[in-house]
Amino acid sequence: AAKNGAGCSNSCLFQRHGFNFHSHPNSADVISTVEFSQSGEFLATGDKGGRVVIFQREPQGEYNVYSTFQSHDPEFDYLKSLEIEEKINKIRWLPQLHSALFLLTTNDKTIKLWKVSERDKQPEGYNLKDEEGRVKDISKITSLQVPVLRPMDLLVEASPRRVFSNAHAYHINSISINSDCETYLSADDLRINLWNLSITDRSFNIVDLKPDNMEDLTEVITVAEFHPHHCHLLAFSSSTGTTRLCDMRSRALCDQHAKLFEEAVDPASRSFFSELISSVSDVKFSHSGRYLLTRDYLSAKVWDLNMEKKPVETYQVHDYLRSKLCTLYESDCIFDKFECAWNGTDSVIMTGAYNNFFRMFDRASRRDVTLEASREVCKRRAVLRPRRVCIGRKRRESDICVDSLDFRKKVLHTAWHPTDNIIAIAARNNLYIFQDRHSPSGHHGVHRIEQETAPQLEDTPPQ
Amino acid sequence: MSACTLVSVSTVLGCHSCFRVDMFSKGTKRKFSDDGGEMSDESLGGANVSSSYNLQRQSLLDMSLIKLQLCHMLVEPNLCRSVLIANTVRQIQEEMTHDGSWQAVTEAFCNGSQSPSERLVATEVLCRSREQDAEPKLFSVISYEGCREEEVVADETLCSVSVSDAASNVCLSESVGHCWETGELRVVESDEETSEGSRLGPGDDDDDDEDDEDEDEVDEEEESSREDSKSMGQVFGTFEIKNGSSGPDSALEELFSDVDASYYDLDTMLTGIQSAPKMGPYDLLDSLAPSHGPPSLGSPSNCRSDLNELDHIMEIIVGS
């Protein structure tokens, strides 16, 4: 019951486990990616300073820091006299086979495979070296001993096992591990490459959007992802608002798409910003593999893989921004790339917005809720109150006027636990983990809905 | 001059109370004039509104051009953002070309020699260089057959001073939500195809695609030779928003004077990277600095400090 009832009504009950990395926020701490492991036991975040922090879920349900390591360092491209940022763009987990964890991390140019393993025993009693590691004087050794493993304090070590570099002339925006767990793709603005996890010195180019004449360039790749079950299918989205599904079986170079998902823009409502706001900032396959979730600037759309002409569902995330597009263009906010996420049962979708708001949409009931991730509002173990943005006058005290929204506070990165109702929200340098109080780990006997206020709907009529 | 434009843009965009201009679309205006202007009041109102629409469109164009030029010197700019802005610029210029305003502007400055007409000047104007010779551009977004007037138009577009009070009451984003009559749109598209077909240079760099680096370099060489043959040097030769060079610029000019510009990858052109910063934008930035408060357009001082850092790094590399 706990896993199934992840409707919007429960989203009011999320609790907060706030993590503030540093008391003095600086830009290196800005979280740039969040990703749950495939079991959900671990959660990884990457930041602008190239650091990765891995959290582990404790038996009581809380997530605590498990390991921290420096994944990428800044580099300098001498050819172009440009810095290569160490910012972690994406993290993807490999399925966990044994005690060690494996994850892929990438910055703009280089992908790395990291192994994170625990050590809680160390060998003692060597014959040839002493406890400090110095070589013993052989003439002094009178007897032989068998070294034994003795317990030690738990040490979590991260080591780079593979470095996949020099394959991308443009900035890497996505990595996605194939369901075969042997290969993965990496996508930059113009190309998608296919790698074998064991081979670092070559990759296959499977999509190439680079025109012969760069002056003809009008479209870039924004996100790419493998299908969760079919190892030959991948989807990639573009800045022109299209999402393409490619079948690697049909040809080696997937420039020809198998399917093209694009919704026609009503010519009457076209403006100079139409293309800008149609640019797809995130693509996620549903867990079932039947649907695609795409996020563009103002909306989130659910597509049925069998229907290319239009989405089956469209959710307006913050349509009140439609009249502010010019201001948002001037401030570059219109280029913000919001991610989106499915819950474990594909019944709810989630995405971020401004003012540290994030939104959840229940697909079946069409109810939605706006919540806020901020320290002022969230106290530990408190229930989140739904928020509402109003365009005109405030109807309630808790409403926020559009003009009061803080556009510097953007929730770009969100992640949903693969099975449970646990979400991770990154707001600048803070990570918020919210859990559904009534279904922490699926063992709760009582399934009671306790609400302080009714869920807020965007178009609630005035009281 | 350009400072005035930007002030008006900021005012326009900072407004909250605005009247919706979308009802006064271009199409409506045309209808009035087609009908022979039976209602003089309304057609006058329509003309006023459409001129403010033109002003807003102009502001949007200016803003887009500035965005493309203000670059982060140390880190490679976002290609997606650059492409989207360039596409916006292209759309605006297509529309302006189509309804004749582009031609009107260029004719005023072009001594009646060539008219760009269907030529989509697009981002020709994005290339700023004070180089008098035909050295290959470090970035050129869309280089159509170079015309002097296009570049001069850029000068004009960025320096247009008309500030109308009506503009301050208008919400720009609404105004650009005008109706695109489908017929017009199609006509524009076919024009675009024609001009693209005639524009493309030699396609012999196709065969040279090996791996990324080679391809980039070959492309770059091909394009540089192609551009030499055009009158690119002419195009940029006379462009100046502001005369004289400021201190950091001339220091950097010296630093880069013996750097072979063709060495740089032209693929970065869309990103607006200018590794040899002999450019108009800094002039533009200078003129922006005093009048322009909000950092949202990209603070000139950031570019300056980045420039100094680049200066420093280049010194280390060059070993001077």
TrEMBL record, chain A:
GO CC terms for this protein?
Answer: protein phosphatase type 2A complex
Q: Which keywords accompany this UniProt record?
A: Repeat, WD repeat
Tell me yes or no: is Repeat among this UniProt entry's keywords: yes
Q: Which SMART domains match?
A: WD40 (SM00320)
| Highest taxon of the lineage | Eukaryota
User: InterPro entries attached here?
Assistant: PP2A_PR55 (IPR000009), PP2A_PR55_CS (IPR018067), WD40/YVTN_repeat-like_dom_sf (IPR015943), WD40_repeat_dom_sf (IPR036322), WD40_rpt (IPR001680)
Q: Tell me which Pfam families the record gives.
A: WD40
Q: Spell out the molecular function terms from Gene Ontology.
A: protein phosphatase regulator activity
Which family would the database say this protein is a member of? Belongs to the phosphatase 2A regulatory subunit B family.
Q: Which PANTHER family match?
A: PROTEIN PHOSPHATASE PP2A REGULATORY SUBUNIT B (PTHR11871)
Protein known as: Serine/threonine-protein phosphatase 2A 55 kDa regulatory subunit B
Gene designation: ppp2r2cb
